[in-house]
Amino acid sequence: MKLRKVMALTLAGAMAAATLTACGGGADETTAAAAGADKETTAAAEDKETTAAAADSGSADAEVVLQVAFENSITEPVGEGWTKAQEIIKEKSGGKMAIEVYPDSQLGDKSSLIDSMLLGENVCTLADGAFYADYGVPDFGIVFGPFLFDNWDQCWTLIESDWYKEQCGKLEEKGLKIIASNWIYGERHTLTNVPVNTVEDLKGLKIRVPSNEIQSKGFDVLGATSTGMALGDVYQALQTKTIDGAENPLATLYGRKLHEVAKYLILDGHVKNFTTWVVSADWFNSLTEEQQTWLLETASEAGEYNNEVQQAAEADYLQKMKDEGVTVVEPSEEVLAGFKEKAQPFYEMDFGWTDGLYDTVRAAMGANE
Questions:
Q1: Taking the domains of the chain in order of start, what are their residue ranges?
Q2: Residues 47-101: pLDDT tens digits?
Q3: Per the CB 3.0–4.6 Å rule, which of 102, 228, 294, 307 could disulfide with 69?
Q4: Which CATH superfamily is domain 189-271+327-364 in?
Q5: CATH architecture of the domain with range 2-185+274-321
Q6: Nearest by Cα to 112 from 269, 250, 228, 3
């Protein structure tokens, strides 16, 4: 297979270059940050050994192998989740199916992996609604809108809804099959170099966001000036005050050492970032019904494991940030209401969405009950 041939040529070099990276979201969220890399040398060496074990999953004797590739480190919650998945699918299938795990962009970036899926390759990666909007399912983008969800339960209600299943069906028609949607990636918060206590404090601040329309406009509507930028450039941009802040889950903010150059964190949770795992629809349909069931059950059960790890990791990251001098604001319900009110015009913008989409999705997630 094409990817396996490429992997054989590049794996040694990629693993030698692997460094400890942390969570992010969107297509460019998990590029390695140069800043702080010297502090992660030991962790990177440990990652190298763990990665080798993850790739060597006993797949040689399996009838079906899925290569799960992502830009995160193997030691992050998503990496731990897929390591767990290797055990689960081996048990379910009696060794007939296997999962090989390739973190740290070893098999390429998200776009190249998706391109391989569209050619029918046996690869899997993580993506989100904003990304799927760019692949021809515009309504999917709304799940990355600011303050759409009031709590995580609404996320889980939504992914079981008819609306969500319809979007998955449309994506499958485009050649991509979602095999799990129950993985928590983290709540996205805002780290700045000046205090932010209310939404009004964001006015005029240059906040780094991933380079996509939904997230850019999602911050502009709050009064900030969104700045699309590669994650690896954010540390220096904060240090030189080219930007005033950045947003991401705690794992990314801490893992990229951004708190060293921006000392104010508001836990606004503007996006509840659940992520999905996607494979080639053609490849999935080539499996037997039994094999499909093994894979779907494995991905879901591994997601539950990821969520447990994620919850514990976020508490740890937050405490570390406090210990290292970050001023943390936990906004009141009144303050959060101000953020949500400011965000509402976002859902009236033209993203090519179906008429009445916001109300449809809010109903599907049970927000009106």
A1: 2-185+274-321, 189-271+327-364
A2: 455 555 556 566 778 899 999 998 777 888 889 999 999 999 999 999 999 999 9
A3: 102
A4: Bacterial extracellular solute-binding protein, family 7 (3.40.190.170)
A5: 3-Layer(aba) Sandwich (3.40)
A6: 3
